[in-house]
Design goal:
By secondary structure, the chain is an alpha/beta fold. The protein is built from 14 helices and 27 strands.
Length: about 600
């Protein structure tokens, strides 16, 4: 006999069935949900820690199912799809723990959506200019030896696209023209040779990526003619949340390869959040040692599918190797630490970061209490100054994302130390205090030649917020980005309604993902303008575009893949294409041609999308 577990959505309720493989006296049902929950029947609520929930059950008899009914605590929260069901379920009992079978997770295999075609150059992102001459040339390999070409060849070989370079291939000549835009290139595709002209390594690499891609999407029969191309934005990013779910280095390397195929050049590495700090640092070894793993008996319990035990950390050697791998793909890595909020793990691992006299009762949107550090305490700055500089110094990009998002409404309301800070610094509100905090830490970075970055909330505060030439990421929509740009900040647009890839593809209850921002089908990834028509004045201050993938619903690395594919095509278009000519119908047609590429490189995709 094996233990069994199942759960279904019944309106606002979640009905669970638990069958133990042995008799158990008063076991505790441990699980995680997207947000805090209540027990409607079948047990007694013992503990909540964000969405992590413990329910005391009556005695269980081996082989006899027991029903537990849950519902989300917030009245407006209703399970939208399978991702909202329990993750990481297990039983705690007098003899230890008993893992329950996990529910099927991730995007389910579906019947192939009807493919549509695109009558033109099958390239994402589309080039700035394409002048076909009506001919074609059969290409298996190319003969060239420039380093950027070899980098593209290595990418092709390890992803399964087959070698791009060979001595007997069609001649590929490279030329340099410093007058072309950065990362731009010109391709002259003829029947007897190809000429690739670029101003820099990035342009040569992207020209080779274009040839590699066209070989796949045009089945080896390339149309001849001229391609003129250059990116609209210098920041073309993809974010990955490695705090909620620990991704293996090999998985991150696969993501970097995918990014390179779509000419994305910034990897936003989110390895710190409420749930963990996963980079090994010398200034605070207890931080990563005590929070890298979560689950039974750990500082952070099994939130977001952590189960009995899960996690890991990244060594400095692994980080350096990843940086080197990324640079070969023309990608820079942006590391992120999270302050002052999203600091639950920080507070649990490091003593002295909260005012002991604080009588406040702030609660984060994820349901956590005490997930904010106190900026009025010397101990906080002793840690943050050292942590920020050590992390930033590891990454040659010389940028550090400081977080600054989702500060709970009543933060510091009961802290005498913060009251005194407000009086000294002329601050009135919690946003003023956060703005002062972000500005102080940003100044510390700027003094060492490091550019600070933060989420949109960091621009708030009576003194103007973070300052110090910080890069501001607009995530709840484009409105905060417009406001930040008009206030003088440079902005990266990453609106959740369009390029948060943890959002569900559809409203189907059998789908997977969140829906708090929107349902995001493929078409919605391009149905927006990076510089809104209502705000043409901000164009010079928009640094670029970034997609995001958060890990609240992720229990295995592979579950990330079909959430990104094929929607990453839309991100690539918005980040690169100046004219923003790709609409939903066009993107759908291009996606049909890219299905074979995703399959060839072994990247799982949402076949129904």
């Amino acid at each position: 006999m094996r233990p069994a577990f199942s759960a279904i959505v019944d309106g606002a309720l979640i009905r669970c069935s638990i069958t133990a493989d042995r008799d158990l006296a008063s076991p505790v049902f441990c699980l995680s949900l997207f947000a805090p929950a209540l027990v409607a029947e079948g047990g007694t609520l013992l503990r909540q820690d964000g969405g992590y929930t413990e329910v005391r059950l009556p005695d269980l008899t081996a082989g006899l199912p027991h029903s537990v009914v849950l519902r989300y605590e917030a009245a407006g929260f209703r399970p939208a799809n399978r991702a909202w069901l329990p993750l990481g379920p297990y039983l705690r009992h007098a003899g230890g723990t008993l893992a329950l079978p996990p529910l099927p997770a991730g995007v389910r295999d579906a019947a192939e959506a009807g493919r549509t075609s695109f009558d033109g150059l099958r390239l994402v992102p589309p080039p700035t200019g394409w002048q076909p001459d009506g001919g074609t040339v059969r290409i298996t390999t190319l003969a060239g030896d420039a380093e950027p070409l070899r980098a593209a060849d290595a990418l092709a070989r390890r992803t399964g696209l087959s070698a791009l370079l060979a001595p007997d291939g069609l001649p590929l000549e490279t030329r340099t023209d410093a007058s072309l835009p950065a990362d731009g290139y010109i391709l002259e595709i003829g029947t007897d040779r190809i000429v690739l002209t670029a101003p820099d390594r990035g342009g040569l690499f992207y020209g080779a990526i274009t040839l590699l891609t066209l070989r796949q999407t045009h089945d080896g029969q390339l149309p001849t003619g001229g391609v003129t191309d250059a990116p609209r934005f210098g920041w073309r990013g993809q974010h990955l949340d490695c705090a909620r779910h620990f991704y293996q280095i090999a998985t991150i390397e696969r993501l970097l390869d995918l990014m390179a195929l779509f000419k994305l050049n910034r990897f936003h590495w989110h390895f710190a959040d409420d749930e963990a700090f996963r980079l090994e640092v010398d200034c605070a070894p207890d931080l990563w040692r005590q929070t890298a793993f979560r689950g039974e008996g750990e500082l952070v319990p099994g939130v977001f599918g952590g189960g009995i035990r899960s996690g890991g950390s990244y060594s400095k050697a692994e980080a350096r190797a990843l940086i080197e791998r990324a640079r070969g793909l023309n990608i820079e890595i942006l590391p992120e630490i999270e302050v002052p909020a999203h600091a639950l793990a920080l507070n649990r691992a490091i003593a002295g970061l909260r005012d002991p006299a604080d009588s406040g009762d702030e609660r984060s949107v994820q349901g956590y209490g005490q997930n904010v550090v106190n900026p009025a305490l010397p101990a906080t700055w002793n840690l943050l100054d050292a942590l920020a500089l050590e992390v930033a110094d590891l990454f040659p990009f010389r940028h550090l994302h400081l977080g600054g998002d989702e500060l709970p409404p009543d933060t510091w309301a009961g802290s005498p130390e913060v009251d005194a800070l407000k009086a000294r610094e002329g601050l009135a509100t919690r946003d003023d205090v956060q703005g002062w905090t972000m500005a102080r830490l940003a100044a510390r970075l700027a003094a060492h030649g490091i550019r600070p970055a933060a989420w949109e909330e960091a621009a708030r505060g009576s003194q103007g917020g973070i300052g110090h030439d910080a890069l501001v990421f607009s995530w709840t929509g484009q409105g905060p980005g417009i406001a930040a740009a008009r206030a003088g900040h440079e902005v990266v647009m990453c609106p959740a309604q369009h390029i948060y890839f943890d959002m569900a593809h559809s409203a189907d209850p059998d789908d997977w993902g969140a829906n708090w921002a929107a349902i995001v089908p493929l078409e919605e990834t391009v149905n927006w303008r990076v510089v809104p028509d209502s705000a043409p004045d901000i164009a010079a201050r928009v640094a670029g575009v970034e997609g995001a993938f958060w890990g609240e619903f992720t229990t295995r690395d592979a579950e990330m893949e079909p959430m990104l594919a094929p929607r990453i095509l839309g991100l690539a278009c918005k980040a690169w294409e100046k004219a923003e000519s790709v609409d939903g119908k066009t993107l759908r047609g291009l996606a049909g041609h890219y299905a074979a590429l995703f399959d060839r490189i072994g990247w799982a995709r949402n076949r129904a999308a």
